[in-house]
Amino acid sequence: MTTETPTVRDVQKARTRRALIDAALSLTGERGRHGLTVDAVAERAGVSRRTVFNHFATLDEIVLAACTEMLDVLVDGFVEAAAAAPPGQPGLAAVVDDVVRAVHATDLVGPMACLTHVVGARAGQDARVEVIVEAAFGRCRRHLLGAVADRYPDVDPLDAELVLGCLLSGVHVLHGHWWDRTGAVDDDASRREWDRLLHRLTTALRTGFAT
Fold first, then answer.
1. CATH number of 66-207
2. Inter-CA distances, 94 with 7, 99, 101, 103, 112, Å
3. pLDDT of residue 1
4. Whose CB has fewer CB within 10 Å in the chain, the N or C terminal residue?
5. At what angle are helices 92-105 and 157-182 packed, to 10 degrees?
6. How far is Cα 173 from Cα 175, in angstroms, rounded to an integer?
7. Backbone dihedral region of 112: left (phi > 0), alpha (psi from -120 to 50 degrees) or beta?
8. Which pLDDT score is estimated for 200?
9. Average pLDDT per run of 10 along the chain, which is 211 residues long?
10. Superfamily for domain range 8-57
11. What is the rounded distance in angstroms from the CA atom of residue 134 to the CA atom of residue 68?
């Protein structure tokens, strides 16, 4: 299978998109999401307002792109864990083993702390945040489902999606509890708390919620 070499224009578009996302992340870290403006993003990225809108229709789309990237560390973790070990016996149990191994091996605390400060409010308290977070988790689920399908093509896609849905919904729920208990900071104590919460989720995924 061959891949097309990116053109100079493609490279420039990707570079500009990266600069816009980085600018939005930097600004939200300084001012919070409500202090984010098109003018500020354009100035920080060194582009015009028009260029911002050539890449993103709204500011929320930039925030969504940033959130999706943060959650995609889980996809990257799955791919890396898969590359380090041969596939298990084809079946749903192997999928569960792989995603559990990946979620424990992936550093989610750093991205979650950043994500928390980017969105700046809980999904249930702000309708716009709810849309952004749900869309970001949806994109992550689709990306992860593609990675699982590549590794286990014979597993029923519905079964795989149910497993991933439980995992990501659980991560979403745990994030709220972790935020309450730690203030969404990235330190040793918050990492220990995340490990405790994550262990409850992955144990339930492996053994069933009724046990």
1. 1.10.357
2. 40, 9, 10, 14, 27
3. 43
4. N
5. 30
6. 5
7. alpha
8. 95
9. 72 92 86 83 94 91 83 82 74 88 88 78 64 82 90 92 91 91 92 96 84 58
10. Homeodomain-like (1.10.10.60)
11. 10
